[in-house]
Amino acid sequence: MTYLVDVLYIVAFALFIYGLMGLTGPKTAVRGNQIAAVGMLVAVVATLIAIRDAGSSNWIIVVAGLVIGVALGIPPALRTKMTAMPQLVALFNGVGGGTVALIAWAEFLDSGGFTDFHGEEPVTHVIVASLFAAIIGSISFWGSVVAFGKLQEILPGRPIGLGKAQQAVNLVLLVVAIGIAVYIGIAAIDPDAPVSGWWMAGLLVVAGVLGLLVVLPIGGADMPVVISLLNALTGLSAAAAGLALDNKAMIVAGMIVGASGSILTNLMAKAMNRSIPAIVAGGFGGGAAAAGAGHEDRTYKSTSAADAAIQMAYGSLVIVVPGYGLAVAQAQHAVKDMAKLLEAKGVTVEYAIHPVAGRMPGHMNVLLAEADVPYDAMKEMDDVNDDFARADVALVIGANDVTNPAARNDPSSPIYGMPVLNVDDAKNVIVVKRSMSSGFAGIDNPLFYEPETSMLFGDAKKVVSEIIEELKAI
Length: 474
Known about the structure:
By secondary structure, this protein is of the alpha/beta class. The chain contains 18 helices and seven strands. It has three domains: about 1-80; about 85-280, no CATH class; about 295-474, TPP-binding domain (Rossmann fold), CATH 3.40.50.1220. Helix 15 links the parallel strand 3 (about 350-355) and strand 4. The longest helix has 28 residues, at about 25-55.
């Protein structure tokens, strides 16, 4: 049966990779997820067969865990709205990291401090992998809890830290965690020096505190990158746990998640013109209060749905800039209907997608794909920025920080140097917002007060629906 297990794992790996390939586009993403899910089912079956062949009754516990996981996982996945999808992603990712940390703790207890690993003397790579999984898994779990809290607005989106002492405290915690891990590892190699289980518990606690203190100081504008980074860490910790357990499914799946998450994190950081260490050291938003002060004294223009419809209907190019406000209002279908009316009048409609628009990687792409917006109409920042100069209207729907020209023009701005969409190059800019409040990073946007900008206040879905009615009358 060993050969059957190996064959099933190979099939599972192939399905993982093939499913991941499907995630490269919205048209194949659903099928890709389904294929990967089948691969995971095959891997679970292979694991149950391996447990049975080992003469263990633990398969009962595994099945019970699967039932509980399905019961807890499916309802929120079905009921969660797209507006809360980033929170769900952060939470599910955290559960993965926490699971890996608990596996490492359980293996420590089951093997008598890694001295007797399932009846065999553990080798160094098993001990190192287990301790690595414990540290990274705990960091990922507690960091994801903070990310969830910020996205759910249970915690403030602004950076929360210890000021100048933050990095020193984080470094001390990291050194302590590594020190405890080294002590446990040395004790595991020496059977005459058994180590107490409290040391492993202490390792998980210290790593958990480090996870909290690493993510708390990161501001809202960096949250999509943080989610991607935590996802990569969870994958790496799962791969390490798989190495310790000699579980091929965990190794391959963990490496796929870790590698893809690392690549995505790096690409998003480059798109923001920021390094990953700079993001971890503390995100945007630290100067929010100063940046946003005094906007009440500045003048801005208001417009109506009728005027907005006229401007767009008689233009040649309209660029829609979606943001989190579009997701909150669930306005993606209304925007698609508006675009169809404009295209019927001979107007070209494009969608400008910033890499970190929304609250998670690819948030806007997912929203628009849900409304069957053609994928070739969604243009990434580098591809669309030159088009704004030709646009008659840039319609900004709920996007704030990613359209802020202060990132280019104001060296004192907390987001200075971050690449943004050049909406201010358009002939006319219409910003759909509920109010003049600042964005998730807590930074005021000078775009709102530019002479070419008009503010259209209200719920995005309601406002776009009003524009649709006006377009029908033209």
